Amino acid sequence: MENNRKSFEFDPIVPFLFIEEEKENMMAALRKLRYETGIRRVLLVFPVWNGDTKGPNAELAYEKFGDLLCDVKQQLAADGMEIGWWCAPSLTLGPDADRMEADSPRIQHLVGIDGTVSQSACCPIDPDYQLLFSSYVRTITKKARPSIILFEDDYRLSCNYGVDFGCFCPRHLEQFSSRIGRQTSREELEALFSTGGEQAVEYRRLWAELMRDSLVELATRLRSTVNEIAPDTRMALCQPGMSDFDGDMTGPVARAFAGTTKPLVRLWGTSYRSDNADSLPEITFHMLYSKLALPEDFEIIHESDTYPHSRFFFSATKLRALIALSMVYGFDGSLSYLTQYTDGPLEEKGYTAMIKESHDFFTGLRHSVEGFRLTGPRVLYRPLAHVHRGSYRTTPAWAQVLGKFGIPCVPYTPSDAAGSLPLFVNGENVLELSPEEIMSMLSGSVFLDGLAAYYLCRMGYGELIGAEVSEMGPNELRDIGHERVTPANVWRDNTEGTRMYFSDQAGPREESGAFRLKPLADAVILSQFVSENREVVSPSVVSFTNRLQGRIAVLAFNLQANRNESILNYKRKEQFRGIAEWLGSRSLPVYSEQPSLFVVALEHPDNGMKMTALFNLSLDETAGVQLVTDRAWYSQNIEFLDDHGIWQAVCNVSWERNDDERYRLSIAKSCSTLRPLVFRFSN
Taxonomically, which superkingdom (predicted)? Predict the structure, then answer.
């Protein structure tokens, strides 16, 4: 089930719960999908989360499903359909802890750091579980030869049915003890991890690596089992949201599943039970990071999941926006969750209608970005930064803030030349940098949030970032009435006055919501915290050029804890835009003057063409689009991609020169919520 057509065509894969008792209706629904929507690739969902597979007749249930999958596959071959198996769930495949037969092997279930035993999730390095899982996979592969086996995203150890941070069963504790060279216990690790410190960081990292290796071990065993029967069968991973907590496991596990076939991975990037529009930059950052980080030979598809698969929770418009964004990012396809897991699989008609109507748009969009490169400031994300805090985050706060501000940004990768583009860093990500990487960063251009700057000061880099940074106590925070920009903050387009809100929403797990900045003599104070009596409490944003000629900006807020009105306001939007351009010594490639317009910018390195995709995150439709571009983007030949995936000339365009570097562009096209506008600029 590989999208190996010479020319890309949007060709989604659709999970489908086939209810055997309704076989005639199910077959009719699948054929309706094929002929009315164009869907040709389907995965039958099994074993689901309860039923016969959890009891004494489990082996028989897998045999029956193998027969069913084979039958469906054969009947639909004449219709040009490919039928695979979606192994859902995966690590909860097997008996529940309280339902194991007395005379059967005692399967080891996951054990949490607090001693909690998961009722459903099983340990991947338990030999009996490996044998059981392998036998089920062998049965279905032998009977049905599915075109692909895709393992659902509970293929993880962390955050899995009552277990937060990996499996602390006796086997895992024994293996961990071997890795650290001494005997340890779950109780010792629980105490160490809750206390923190350098050894806790070291052990959390080693523990995460052990979890990754455990998942690779089982994937290798399952691949070997399938190779005995059908070595060409593709096996693939649905990336879990907790993949980085399990040691950045995505690439190694997907590679183990693939064997000698082309690796395939579905990257997560959606939100369940939510039709929220303005979280789009946040929920899609990690999938872009993963795509850029994974090897080039991987086939990468998007998690176009609408769970619970109805428009009561998730609109077809949001689904279209997610798929469109994945096409802009160069994804190879989509795992599109279009059907209901009921006896009326096509009851929700909005998703299939959208897929049919948008097929040519998705195809044309994906074709159009070929050869383009994403451009804009870089945002640092390190997948193992969680070892420094013990809690899990997958998106740096900068990604959501810059997205809301209309400032295009891209995850930093090692291929980015040091100092070539502004780098935005927040929180513990800075702790994952080596001393050499820190010096390289501080020799270039970087915008630090308060927590990242605080860590750098503790490491002795205060004189290179332009300020000493210390925690504010509760009384100091209460002294702050508001924040105001200073005359040095010259970036004031589309703003009025000098005052901004102050709100500290740091939770109990955060070190601080805001930090005290004590700037060095040459630092420039761009804004200040002041009391209601207008007395300065502390600078809130400073800029600085250090002795290495590095350009540094520091924001006093812990950005991860405060993405509120203190940050999201018009003055801050212009301040951050101005700082980004000062850091980079050039204009942003393209920037939205309007609020909550998410901007993706692309440039072609060979033909000089430019492209931008705009996603309105607000419920308010924009009557027109107001952009500011770098002079290199100036063009009298602007096109937009229509709903049929065809480029059309844009009329009613107005360019106005701002200064030597920037142009203001007005386009008389409305932009409604999550209905992307894609523009192309030609020389």
Answer: Bacteria
d(C-alpha 45, C-alpha 17), whole Å: 5
How many C-beta neighbours within 10 Å does residue 61 have? 18
The C-alpha atoms of residue 676 and residue 667 are separated, in whole angstroms, by: 14
Running DSSP on this structure, what letter comes out for residue 99?
G
E strand spans, 174-274 = 234-238, 264-267
Radius of gyration for the alpha carbons in the chain, expressed in angstroms and rounded: 27
Q: Distances in Å between the alpha carbon of 6 and those of 3, 260, 370, 454, 644?
A: 9, 21, 14, 52, 21
Q: What are the φ/ψ torsions at residue 183 (nearest 5 degrees)?
A: -75, 140
- What does each C-alpha distance from 71 to 65, 84, 145, 509 come to in angstroms? 10, 12, 11, 54
Least confident residue range of 45-54, 427-436, 463-472, 577-586: 45-54
Find out whether 310 and 352 touch, Cβ atoms under 8 Å: no
Reduce the DSSP state of residue 428 to 3 states and report it. helix
- Encode pLDDT of 564-592 as tens digits: 899 999 999 999 999 999 999 999 999 99
φ/ψ of 629, rounded to 5, equals: -125, 160
Phi, psi of 573 (to 5 degrees): -55, -50
Closest C-alpha to 156, from 90, 207, 86, 200:
90
Whole-number Cα distances in Å, 404 to 78, 323, 399, 565, 567: 48, 19, 9, 12, 11
- Which DSSP letter does residue 412 get? -
Element (H, E) at 264: strand 264-267
DSSP β-ladder status, 662-667 and 625-630: antiparallel
Q: What beta strand segments (E) does 159-260 contain? A: 234-238
Nearest to 513 by CA among 473, 571, 458, 453: 473
Q: CA nearest 575: which of 557, 546, 555, 558?
A: 555
Please give the order of strands across the beta sheet that includes 423-425: 410-411, 378-379, 423-425, 445-448, 551-555, 536-545, 524-530, 482-485, 499-500
Supply 187's token pair: 């109780």
pLDDT at 105 over 70: no
Give the sheet arrangement for strand 610-616, strand by strand. Answer: 373-375, 597-603, 610-616, 677-682, 637-641, 647-649
330 close to 292: Cβ distance less than 8 angstroms: no
Beta strands 410-411; 378-379: pairing state: parallel
Query: Rounded to two decimals, what is the model's pTM?
Result: 0.95
For helices 186-195 and 198-227, what crossing angle results, to 10°?
Answer: 130
d(CA 174, CA 178): 6
Q: What does the pLDDT look like over 329-387, one tens digit per residue?
A: 999 999 999 999 999 999 999 999 999 999 999 999 999 999 999 999 999 999 999 99
Distance CA 79, CA 631 (A): 53
**Coil/strand/helix, residue 300:** strand
Distance CA 249, CA 153 (A): 12
Q: What is the pairing mode between strands 662-667 and 653-657?
A: antiparallel
Question: Residue 377: its pLDDT value, please?
Answer: 97
- Tokens representing 123 are 């340990």
User: Cβ(1)–Cβ(299) under 8 Å?
Assistant: no
**Residue in 377, 382, 432 with CA at minimum distance from that of residue 588:** 377
Q: Is the pLDDT confidence value at 481 over 70?
A: yes
Q: How confident is the model at residue 476 (pLDDT cuts 50, 70, 90)?
A: confident
Q: Cβ distance 208 to 246 under 8 Å?
A: yes
